[in-house]
Amino acid sequence: MIILLRFHLERADVTLKNQNESGYLLLEAVFSITLLFSILFTFIPMNYQILKEYKDLEIKREVALELSNQLKLSSDNTTIRKNIITKDSYEITYTFNQQNNILEGCATWIDTKEIIQDICFYYPNQ
User: So where does this one cross the membrane (predicted)?
Assistant: First the structure.
């Protein structure tokens, strides 16, 4: 009888242990899913924002290069010019103006955040 009683107690401990492990596994799964969603909801918008900023910088570099090239080519021209060029679905307006002995070249466009951006370069005119 003592042996049977002892076996019965050990059996109850095993059952309690399995129930506790089941709760622990559920808690671990909830924590893992929460961590996964936290990471996803943080990094996906951050990655999207970084890509938008990268696109804005890429357009700004291309506009600055094109403006510099056009400014050097039109240094002998003294008239006011206005060019509109579409590049990668961005409408870029180039404006050239002569002031005294300085040629001013400006470019204006709307970036991915719907903000009007402009950049101006100045070139001495001989």
Answer: 24-44
| Statement: residue 85 has pLDDT above 90 | no
Q: Closest Cα partner for 82 from 73, 90, 72, 92?
A: 92
CA 50 to chain centre: 2
Global pTM exceeds 0.70? no
Q: What is the pLDDT of residue 90?
A: 87
Q: What is the pLDDT, as a whole number, of residue 122?
A: 92
Task: State the amino acid at position 86 in one-letter form.
Answer: T
